[in-house]
Amino acid sequence: MEKITKLVEEIKTLTLVEAAELVKALEETFGVSAAAMAVAAAPAAGGAAPAADAPAAKSEFDIFLKDAGANKINVIKVVKEITGLGLGDAKAIVDAAPKVVKEKVQADEAKKIEAQLKEAGATVELK
User: Fold this and answer.
1) Contact 98, 66 (CB under 8 A)
2) Strand (E) positions, 7-126?
3) How far apart are CA 108 and CA 114, in angstroms?
4) Closest Cα partner for 35 from 16, 17, 49?
5) Whole-angstrom Cα distance, residue 113 to residue 100?
6) What is the rounded distance in angstroms from the CA atom of residue 43 to the CA atom of residue 54?
7) Rg (Cα) of the chain, in Å, rounded?
8) What is the pLDDT of residues 3-53, one digit of tens each?
9) Dihedral of CA 91/94/96/102: which sign?
10) Rounded Cα gap, residues 88 and 19, in angstroms
11) Given phi > 0 = left and psi -120 to 50 = alpha, else beta, which region is 46?
């Protein structure tokens, strides 16, 4: 168990890119996908994993404005409203699209903001 604890502590220091590279290297080395490794690990840990151990649904999203669309003025108004920025700053965000409008937004609020931006004519993606 000490060996595993040391590995976990080492993995915690990796950047997101390094972690992705690690997953890819493990998949190539062992000839399996990360999903298959998780399934294989569950029986080794004492049986099927309970639903509580399943990865949780993502709870925070970044709101990514892909394109302002034809109604740019309406999109600027919505961006101003949701960010609390001034008109000039909101316009700068819309003009810089594709761009993140707001980061780490709770899922329910993110869906509302996405709907507002789409209603204004923007193309939006939650990441």
Assistant:
1) yes
2) 60-67, 99-106, 123-126
3) 10
4) 49
5) 13
6) 14
7) 21
8) 888 888 888 888 877 877 888 887 778 777 666 555 555 555 555 545 555
9) positive
10) 39
11) left
